[in-house]
């Protein structure tokens, strides 16, 4: 029987990227939920075997402009409290932090956009598969201006030169990544199109630099990211079925 993955998508340009074929090979049948179009009332947060909360160009605290953010955070909290396998990427990581009652706010160092290294957090050794990306020779793609406090009970996995909270684990099966290991380097141009206004109004960021860095670092990044995703998905294969029992109880 196929496993199910639900991807919460905020903008079409920030999709599953290179994670999509790896999910298929791991036996997941993926369904997309388009946030702001689909209704959280129509789907249970507990049903999918894996939930993936994708990125987007808005802020978690923009609830006046985007009222559905309140529903999304409450819906996500219900899943996290059951410790069901959940992945947050970019905005998705910030939403996970907010759902766990941590503060999300504009970063004091400005926008972190581009390719740079990660550093190990104090609990990285508990999640050896992430070490594939925490390597002095590997640069990952960052694209955010907000940051968050570490939720109470979360385990700090990685940081960057600009912002300390780049990855955290919560419970047994929940992972939040502020950076973007899902990106397919071939589609970085779509990211630049989708964020054209932001790039034009951010100091020290240029299209030429983003393109050059993608060319320089992209191949090694994709190889490291592929190994990371394979290791992480394999870790989910070891679940003992208690989540299935809990959802059906």
Automatic annotation (TrEMBL):
Pfam assignment, any one: GATase
Coiled-coil region(s): none
Gene Ontology, cellular component aspect: cytosol
The protein's name: Glutamine amidotransferase protein
Species per Swiss-Prot/TrEMBL record: Herbaspirillum seropedicae (strain SmR1)
Bilayer-crossing regions: none
Record InterPro entries: ChyE-like, Class_I_gatase-like, GATASE
Domain Glutamine amidotransferase: 29-190
GO MF entries: transferase activity
Keyword match Metal-binding: no
Lineage: Bacteria, Pseudomonadati, Pseudomonadota, Betaproteobacteria, Burkholderiales
Source organism, top-level taxon: Bacteria
Keyword annotations of the record: Glutamine amidotransferase, Transferase
Stored PANTHER family: GLUTAMINE AMIDOTRANSFERASE YLR126C-RELATED (PTHR42695:SF5)
